[in-house]
Amino acid sequence: MNGNQIKTGGGLIFIQKIMKARNLHVTEWEVFGVIVALIAFAISIGTPIVKLNTSITRLIDRLNMLDEGMDELTARNSKSHERLWKHNEEQDDKLHDHETRITILEKKER
Fold first, then answer.
1. Structurally, how many domains does the chain consist of?
2. What are the E-state strand segments in 1-110?
3. In Å, how far from its chain's centre is CA 105?
4. CB hemisphere CA count around 7 (13 angstroms)
5. What span, in angstroms and rounded, lies between the C-alpha atoms of 23 and 77?
6. Alpha carbon 12 to chain centroid distance?
7. Per-residue pLDDT tens for 29-41?
8. Is a pLDDT exceeding 70 seen at residue 106?
């Protein structure tokens, strides 16, 4: 091993060989800078994506909870309407009975 291989490591040697083959001269620090820039770019793109994914997951959970709550509300609403209609029918029957009694009383008075 020569001193250059010890300093640069295996991955950087490969990049340097490619650069030399293409007649490009790049220092170790330039290669390191490019790698750091790529990592920073990946982090800058990845972080918002992870946050967005987390937000979407939380929203889906809340929508599922709302859907369950809506099902319960619909069931209670239906029962309440049944009670109201039953009471309404009872009132209609009583009103009809009163109308019949009033009619009979009016006929007696004549």
1. 1
2. none
3. 69
4. 8
5. 79
6. 43
7. 888 898 999 999 9
8. yes
